[in-house]
Structure formats: structure tokens, C-alpha cells
Amino acid sequence: xxxxxxxxxxxxxxxxxxxxxxxxxxxxxxxxxxxxxxxxxxxxxxxxxxxxxxxxxxxxxxxxxxxxxxxxxxxxxxxxxxxxxxxxxxxxxxxxxxxxxxxxxxxxxxxxxxxxxxxxxxxxxxxxxxxxxxxxxxxxxxxxxxxxxxxxxxxxxxxxxxxxxxxxxxxxxxxxxxxxxxxxxxxxxxxxxxxxxxxxxxxxxxxxxxxxxxxxxxxxxxxxxxxxxxxxxxxxxxxxxxxxxxxxxx
Length: 250
Prior knowledge:
Layout lengths: L4 H4 L2 H8 L6 H8 L3 H14 L4 H7 L5 H11 E2 L1 H4 L5 H12 L18 E2 L6 E2 H7 L9 E4 L4 E4 L4 E9 L6 H8 L2 H7 E2 L11 E3 L20 E6 L3 E6 L7
Antiparallel strand pairs: 1-2, 3-4, 4-6, 5-6, 6-10, 7-8, 8-9, 9-10
Helix pairs in contact: 3-4, 3-6
Organism: Lupinus angustifolius
Protein name: F-box domain-containing protein
InterPro entries: EID1-like, F-box-like_dom_sf
């Protein structure tokens, strides 16, 4: 097999090309996913020359390409209505079957195909700790949660408008949120654990931050009992959720 152009070029020349990328972490994330060689160059050199937020420095310090894959997905991927907790698993399973048959599925609501699963996000891509702090209850404010700036990816569903967000905890296993959901025992811990895969990594279970009392209490509920804000986190600290307009009470 003949060598490609990049296989012929030495590392210094490739690094010079990479250095011309805009200061957008999505560009470096995409390049790092191309090959092991590109990943090593981006990890060892390029991110140090860019003005990335401290969060990206944590992700890029990973010794495996998985950190780059996660960064790429967090930057460009909306978790969808299912992973944001808007649609129960039973509804989305039925929706998938109906979609494969070209039919419309409805169970107390209309489902917009293409929105219930992960897809390319719209809206802002950058992650903000300020927004994450507004999401957590007071006792968890020291935990570093970065989520995309509001409004995130907006979805209009039959009942109301959902603003989907995604994000990640910095050093999740050292946070108070992790200790809260991990130290729970019996029904308390099982109530907040859900057998649903993470939208951004290979974790097969997530925890409901609302059920674990990790979210700020002032968000409230709609008249039908649906929470105004919901959020879920996997073992690796990746967060997906949705918020709606706060109901107006007379």
C-alpha cells in the first residue's frame, strides 16, 4: 500500500499545519480522532498552544483517545429527548419500531422522529461552569459542572418546548454529587439509577440527579407533574438533561 501524504511528512510539518487551526476545540477533537499519530500530536503539543478552557485541558490529558471522542461528542452532539429524560424508555422503544416501519407513534404525545435519539446539536457549543452552578443545589456548588450555554438545542414537542443541554463534571469521582449517588443504599440508590446508556460514552447506566436531590429545588414542576428541569449523569461524569420555561403561577 502506498504511503499517504501525511505519512511522508515529518511531525514538525504536520504540527505546523495543525497550529493553523482556529481556537475551536472541536477542530482539534476531530483531527485527533483520525489516527493514533494525530491523536499523539494533538495531545502532546497542539492543545498546549491553544487558549482552551481548563476543562478541555483535563479532558485532553487523557492517555487514551476516548477523551477526544468524548470532547467531540460533547461539542457537537445533542443527547436527544430520550437521554435527556423527556421520553420514557417504553415510548422511545415503540417509537423506534414505528420509525423503522415509516409510521407515526403516539402515546399521550406526538413524537418527532430524529429528535428522541442523539443528533447534531444546534445553538451554542461552549461549556460554562456558571451555568452548571445554577443547576446544582447549594450543597453541591463546589463541584465543577460545565454545561452548554442556554438555551442549548431547542426541541418543540406537542406539550411544550424543551431546551436540551449536555455537559460534564470535572474530576467527577471527587465530587460531592458522586459521593451522594454512590453512597446511597438500598431503594434510595436504586431509585435514582436508570438502565439507560450515556449519550457520550459506553456507560450503560445513568443516575437521575433530580431523584438524588442534587438539583436546585426552586425549579418546580408543571401542572401535570413534569419537572421544569431534569438532568442525568453517568459514571464518567457526562451530563444530559432538559429544561422548560418555568410555569407562571397566579
